[in-house]
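2.7 Reproducibility. Because tokenized structures are sensitive to small changes in the input, we list the exact sequence used for Cytochrome bc1 complex cytochrome b subunit, including any N-terminal residues retained from the expression construct. No trimming or masking was applied before prediction.
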Amino acid sequence: MSGRIERSRSNGRPVAPSKGERLADWADGRIGLNALAKTQMRKVFPDHWSFMFGEICLYSFLILILTGVWLTLFFEPSNVEVVYEGPYEPLNGILMTRAYESTLEISMEVRGGLLIRQIHHWAALIFVVGMLVHMMRVFFTGAFRKPREVNWLFGWTLLMLGLITGLTGYSLPDDLLSGTGIRFAQGAILSVPVVGTYLSMFLFGGEFPGHDIIARLYPIHVLLLPGIMLGLVVAHLILVFYHKHTQFAGPGRTEKNVIGMPFMPIYMAKAGGFFFLVFGVLAVLGAVAQINPVWAIGPYRPDLVSTGAQPDWYLGFSEGLIRVMPGWEINLFGHTLALGVFIPFTLFPLIMMAIAVYPFIEAWITGDKREHHIADRPRNAPTRTGLGVAWLSLYGVLLIGGGNDIVATHLHLSINVITWFVRIAVFVVPVLAFVVTRRICLGLQHRDRDKALHGRESGIIKRLPHGEFIEVHEPLSQAQRHVLTAHEQTLPYELGPRRDANGVERRVKRSDRLRARLARAMYGPGTQVPKATAEEYRELQHGDGHH
Ligand code: HEM
Ligand code: HEM
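Resulting structure tokens (single pass, no recycling of outputs):
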């Protein structure tokens, strides 16, 4: 292509390609981007406000990298002890680690340092909120179903790594809060039977707090975890591209097409704008909302714990698990087993795992091997929605447990009352949340059915000649009726007759029996309201029109 002379359309004179064209030709000849761009840049993305959560994760992650790289220029990950002498008077003459001192310098002496530190911290909080909300969006709409299960797992791994990255970052400044967090983690490690003590000694380079921990957490926080996450984010987005995005039901939308905006230029322009919006919000937060004022908290000392010590919100629920667990401890063959710590420590990944494996369990129960590109409305999958809300409610209850001291002081209650409330609520609230959510979903399904058949209540009351009052219903458009009735209603998996035609009893595997029972619980009688059918609608239309 290079060196090609084109004729201008206006007067037929040959024109040399512009510099830009030559550069594009040069790059295309070597990287072949043109062919890729031609096929991919016009890719269509469906639009819905809830699809923005994934973007919030992406942009806050990029901002974390940008601000994080900047912080590395000034932060010193060192446990070496120094005596502070600087512009912040109240700490002058106090012994602290170099890590803490350099964080003070970033906050007080480096120009713009406090702003960038605060943006980094706010971005971390928003990043994890974004991931949780994005994950729940995917969960509630069933967007994890085939072929997106692997991408669900990529995303889930990102969430787990995000939590750990947040914890390691929070631990770096070595203030009293971050040291307390490290102490908490060390307690959890110590509770691991038999090897716990060795693990702790290895990690901390001797007795707690040792001299190594910050220097060890540092490369994990700035290189290892973000590096793995970056790779996973790229893989995640490639898969979103490859599978194409799910879309909500609507006229003309099928399992085989995608209706929306082209990636280039419309979606890219929107995405670019949204990036700056997210950056803008984080910059304003970083500028006006104080976060983690390490100078006010003071340097870490193993013999001190400040009241109200809290992890960042996303780890509050793991803290809650430990705070509300009875302090069980047993002695086994001369080894102390701190079950009061070890059980919650193992429960935390199990609660997270429940959400990781859900797509596979649902696929097993339904036995559905088809691809799904039309997103569910949460009300049309009441059991799944109920389970999602129950999971969230457990998260919320444990968060209260993690902040039991704060709740106690703010509500003027005894801390024991809160602890006992959480101990009971951990079992009761998720069940209640499940039942109530499922009922609400069924109620909404009833309403959809009524709306599809009888139209929307207009609020206009009419009196008929014979005296009866009726409310006038406005018919829905065909498109609206389609949206209300497009969903599939899954039939529960059945075991089939237990005896064959010759009366011989068939052996049924235990796993099959479990599957049938779960399928009945999820899709059996009372779990969905039959959707309005075309026949019912036609019958009503041709009847007396009397609703
Ligand atoms: C998923 C990504 C990340 C999360 C969730 C995260 C989270 C955090 C948090 C919560 C802190 C404590 C901030 C504070 O002082 O109040 C922190 C500190 C820090 N982060 Fe990150 N971070 C991430 C990525 C990165 C990256 C990619 C880098 C560098 C390349 C980085 C470098 C740093 C440094 C140097 C500090 C210590 C300075 C300080 O605390 O002021 N972070 N991080
Ligand atoms: C660093 C964290 C993450 C980033 C940057 C990210 C980014 C994105 C983006 C931009 C999209 C397309 C737009 C959208 O649907 O919102 C998407 C889709 C998706 N994400 Fe994530 N995500 C992250 C974490 C997660 C998590 C925690 C999960 C679930 C556990 C997840 C599962 C999915 C799935 C299944 C899709 C496809 C959805 C569909 O086609 O409807 N992602 N992600």
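The chain has 19 helices and twelve strands.
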